[in-house]
Specification:
Length: 469
């Protein structure tokens, strides 16, 4: 065990609900039903956090709106992973000066991962006076208090102190439909990959208690959830801060034991801690989807060392080969970074060869983006931008050809799918491996599992028909 995880006391959370009541009374006195708009950037962790922000806002009496125009509260839940993500936020934040001019009562908040960086908060203080409140991920649980302070004091609020992080249970959550639900099982990250900002903005790794997670999953399934995605930056180290003899694989088994028909997915797994026990557990349970997102980042062991990833090419391949051997038909996806400082052409080719060897179903490819404050931002980076773009394009071309071939291999096969929605005139569905399928059919099938015969394919998705219409 390393750190002791701090849980926010129930009393402190009750105090936040009292702030919700005050905000609600504030609007009630004015005879107004206020509107709120929450914009989310970044990963599923942020999506899950936004569900909590919406939950709090609903508790405060706000109705959700689809845009910032006319909203009484706008919350920008931001991502700091790459420079491009930050630029988009600053651009959109600038545009809010206009919505605020048209609706001067509008209160604007910035939160999420960007709010954990002092370079960002300094810039907001100086150049974005229309932003009323800023709070880092550690302070999300205090949002009602921050909102109330802005409304009642008319002064800007900054809740950005750097903390190791805690866990708050019991924040209301406005889920975007229940059929497919996120469940955060842990927060933060201890890995400090040299390129990555996440450990700095989300604090140390901390796990939720297993009984809290199980209760949440049980409730979701009872209410009709058919797909649970467990979230964490590094789910394989779940429980290390809480238990001596209970790990992520044990948690998966216990969730799979909950009665009901559902799939469990999870992300992200760090290859460093991806154990045979985990893969054996996945293989043993029909409820654990045979899908694995296992980011490798680079095919070169030298680069992996410079990235501080704690595995090399051989260890990664060994893990993947074992996973494939116990789960035939496993759908594998990954993240990769092109143009890490000092990456040579030969090292880049090692990444290409790893992709060709593993044959991923899909890949998320990124060009290295220096993040101020991380070690890699200070490393010598002589490769020109054009060369990095060329590597990026080559990698995408190699992967697209593989994805297309793998998808074509599905045609003619019958796949069990969860019908999850509609896109124009077609139903949308997901295979157990998480592949997207479009098929004709009626809305009353949404929320059910169906046998679907794949009839066509593209790089990104499949088309199909019901096997037993
Ligand atoms: N915790 C996850 C990843 C979270 S970030 C893991 O360790 O696998 C999602 C992806 O963004 C990473 O896998 C990485 O490929 C990419 N990424 C992170 N920092 C980056 C940076 N500075 N530049 C480019 N890509 C980056
Ligand atoms: Fe970032 Fe590495 Fe942590 Fe993933 S494991 S969040 S890449 S530091
Ligand atoms: Fe971005 Fe924060 Fe997720 S930096 S990728 S939103 S953890």
């Amino acid at each position: 065990m390393n750190t002791k995880t701090t849980v926010i006391p129930e009393e402190a959370l009750k105090r936040q609900f009292a702030f919700c009541d005050r905000v609600s009374a504030y609007w009630h006195e004015k005879g107004i039903t206020p509107g709120a708009y929450v914009e989310t950037y970044g990963c599923q962790q942020n999506e899950a956090d936004s569900e909590k922000i919406r939950g709090y806002l609903t508790q405060c009496g706000y109705r959700m709106m689809p845009q910032a125009e006319g909203a009484d509260v706008v919350v920008m839940n931001t991502c700091a992973i790459r420079e491009h993500a930050e630029q988009r936020v600053f651009g959109n934040l600038g545009a809010l000066t206009h919505t605020k001019r048209r609706h001067p009562e509008q209160k604007i908040f910035l939160c999420g991962c960007m709010a954990g960086q002092s370079v960002v908060t300094d810039r907001i203080r100086k150049s974005y006076p229309h932003v009323d409140g800023v709070f880092s991920t550690h302070h999300l649980w205090q949002f009602p208090e921050i909102l109330w302070n802005v409304l009642s004091q008319g002064r800007r609020q900054f809740y950005i102190t750097d903390e190791p992080g805690s866990i708050a249970e019991g924040i209301p959550q406005n889920r975007d439909g229940i059929l497919k639900s996120w469940v955060s099982i842990m927060y933060g990250c201890n890995n400090f990959c040299t390129y990555c900002i996440v450990p700095y903005v989300r604090g140390r790794e901390r796990s939720r208690r297993k009984e809290d997670i199980l209760a949440e999953c049980r409730e979701l399934i009872e209410k009709g959830c058919r797909e649970i995605t467990l979230l964490g930056q590094n789910v394989n180290s779940y429980g290390k801060d809480l238990y001596d003899n209970f790990d992520f694989a044990d948690l998966l088994s216990e969730i799979a034991d909950i009665p009901g028909d559902f799939w469990i997915r999870f992300m992200t797994s760090h290859p460093r801690d991806a154990s045979r026990k985990l893969f054996d557990t996945m293989a043993a349970s029909p409820k654990i989807a045979k899908q694995l997102h296992l980011p490798f980042q680079s095919g070169s062991s030298r680069v992996l060392k410079a990235m501080n990833r704690h595995y090399d090419r051989e260890k990664y391949l060994e893990a993947v080969n074992y996973a494939k051997s116990v789960m035939p038909g496993l759908v594998l996806t990954s993240d990769v970074i092109v143009g890490f400082p000092g990456e040579t052409e030969a090292e880049f080719e090692e990444t290409v060869s790893l992709i060709e060897q593993v044959r991923y179903d899909a890949l998320f490819t990124f060009i290295f983006s220096p993040r101020p404050g991380t070690p890699a931002a200070d490393m010598a980076d002589p490769t020109p931008k054009e060369e990095k773009n060329r590597r990026f394009d080559r990698l995408c071309a190699v992967q697209n050809a593989i994805s297309e071939e793998i998808h074509a291999g599905y045609v003619g096969k019958t796949l069990r799918c969860l019908i999850d929605g509609r896109d124009k005139d077609m139903l949308t569905a997901r295979t157990e491996g998480g592949r997207l399928v479009r098929l004709p059919g009626d809305d009353d099938l949404i929320g059910t599992y169906q046998e679907v015969t794949a009839t066509g394919s593209t790089t990104w998705s499949l088309t199909g028909t019901l096997s037993h219409p």
